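Pilot study result, target chain (182 residues):
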Amino acid sequence: MQKKGIFYLGIAVLTFAFTHIFDKLGIDAGVDPAVFTFFRVFIGFIFISFIWLPQRKPIKNIFSLAVIGVLASGIGVLIGINALSYTTATNKGVMQAMISAVTLIFSYFMLKERMPNTFYPTFGLMVVGLTLLTSNGLSETPNMGDLMLFLTVPLIGFCNVYAKKTMRDVGSLTVSFGRYLF
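Predicted structure:
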């Protein structure tokens, strides 16, 4: 990997790591989750626009971009930020780890990608761990925020795979731009 790629990867990892914390701080400060979601997506749109617009590529496959945008950047982000009214940033971060596993399941069915042999026991351990975490060791039922986050897992997993499928016809920057546009 080139140094430029490592630099961008580092920024992406750090940004993603702090997202849940800043989302929780915003919600705890009293910002309405819908308003917070709107501005979070709007600011993302502004940033991606500065990268995408100079290329002046035509937008193809608008329906797919709209599906990805509405489900991932709209409904998924809104539910995730609303969930922080009821749960912790830690639980949100741990729940996000399930998205990778669910993405793998969707890619198996939608893209015919192979699943590693270790997937099933690993996925089982993840489900058990999340169950124990969100139920406080099975001593209580998961709170509303954890249940809301659990709903976002298949939604985002589907959108990840659908975005990859869409990238057969449209570049990754256009998919990112469309995701924030819709």
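One observation from the pilot: The radius of gyration is 17 Å. A full batch analysis is planned for the follow-on phase.
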